[in-house]
Amino acid sequence: MNALTEPHYRCAALLTIDVQRDTLDGQPLEVPGTSAAVPRISALCNAFRSAGRPIVHVVRIYRPDGSNAEPVRRDLVTGPTPVLHAGHPGHQLAPTVAPSDTTLDDDLLLAGDLQSLGPDEVVMYKPRWGAFFDTALHTHLQARRVDTVVIAGCNYPNCPRTTIYQASERDYRIILVTDAISGLYDRGVAEMQGIGVRLSPAADVIAAMEGAQS
């Protein structure tokens, strides 16, 4: 990895992508591997909180009428089973990922505002696959002098991968946490290496964050 893509842990922010109850085992939008990744995602959150570094929990919230859903998902969203619906328990963050008393403020988030969960920890709604599309994420990170994003969460092929490419287009240094992401596959690993993404297990990221603060 060259000097222009090497992570700066002192300038890093953690992005958790779609780590919501409906994506866990046995739930309507179950994504295999997400439940298994949650303990490591939670450990990353704790490490970033301890280091005083920013955390952004990026979520999808669908209106039950499907009006804000991707066209490919409108039939699913308007079907008989609630899927990441506003006001429904399944769209809440997965247990242990956020502070225990967290309840998403749907009106605030759907309006494009950030919901604060604690010191420099927020929730942000994204209207499409990528976290930078039509959101305040880039402005939020730049205001905090973030140049490195650490990506963890749900279903690499869709929202995490799109977010990573959008971050790369904005010249962020990027870490993909390989055991804190669901849906990662061999070709995906090669794709990420090809655009300068650092692939690291959670334990290495946590150790680096601790070392950066010493």
Provide an overview of this structure.
By secondary structure, this protein is of the alpha/beta class. It has one domain (9-213): Isochorismatase-like (Rossmann fold). 31% of the residues lie in helices and 18% in strands. The chain has helices at 34-51, 74-77, 106-110, 137-143, 159-169, 186-194, 202-213; strands at 12-17, 55-59, 115-118, 121-125, 148-153, 173-181, 198-200. A 7-stranded mixed sheet has the order 3-4-2-1-5-6-7. Strand 6 (173-181), helix 6 and strand 7 (198-200) form a beta-alpha-beta unit. Helix 1 (34-51) runs parallel beside helix 7. The protein is globular, with a radius of gyration of 16 Å. The model has no long low-confidence stretch (mean pLDDT 96). One of its GO terms (molecular function) is hydrolase activity. Pfam families: Isochorismatase. Keywords: Hydrolase.
Would you kindly provide a brief summary of this structure?
The longest helix is centred in the first third of the chain and has 18 residues, at 34-51. The protein has 7 helices and 7 strands. The chain is α/β, with parallel strands linked by helices and 214 residues long.
